[in-house]
Amino acid sequence: MEEFETNGREKGVSRALYTILYLIIGRLISMVLFVIAITQFIYTWVSGEPNDKILQFSERLAEYTKQLVAYVSFNTDEKPWPVGDWPTI
Q1: What is the pLDDT of residues 49-86, one digit of tens each?
Q2: Where are the domains of the chain?
Q3: d(CA 59, CA 84)
Q4: Higher model confidence: residue 48 or residue 9?
């Protein structure tokens, strides 16, 4: 019984540390998203259409953000990048 409690606490501490890491990454994503939005706006204004590479990256970033939210909100135990894989669409 004691072994189970120790293992449960270790998992809880590990989950808490990963959650803090992913919350920090989430804040960084909001800054990256700001840069993407401004860049796409300027690019579209100049060329008349959005940049395809930025569109692909932002689609993967959106999927990654979804994975972060799912992990932090305990909807999944699968860890996103940098522990897991970067999403592919």
Answers
A1: 999 999 999 999 999 999 999 999 999 989 888 877 77
A2: 2-72
A3: 18
A4: 48
Please tell me the distance from the alpha carbon of residue 59 to that of residue 78, in angstroms, as a whole number.
Answer: 20
What are the Cα distances from residue 80, in Å, to 19, 37, 62? Answer: 11, 24, 13
Residue type present at position 85: D
Per-residue tokens: 21: 């890491």
DSSP letter (8 states) at residue 73:
T
Please provide the DSSP assignment of 1-23 as one string: -HHHHHHHHHHHHHHHHHHHHHH
Q: Which two tokens stand for residue 86?
A: 């970067």
Residue 64 and residue 72 in contact, taking contact as beta carbons nearer than 8 Å: no
Q: Are 16 and 9 in contact (CB under 8 A)?
A: no
Rounded to two decimals, what is the model's pTM? Answer: 0.78
Q: Could you tell me what percent of the chain has a pLDDT over 70?
A: 91
CB 37 within 8 A of CB 44: no
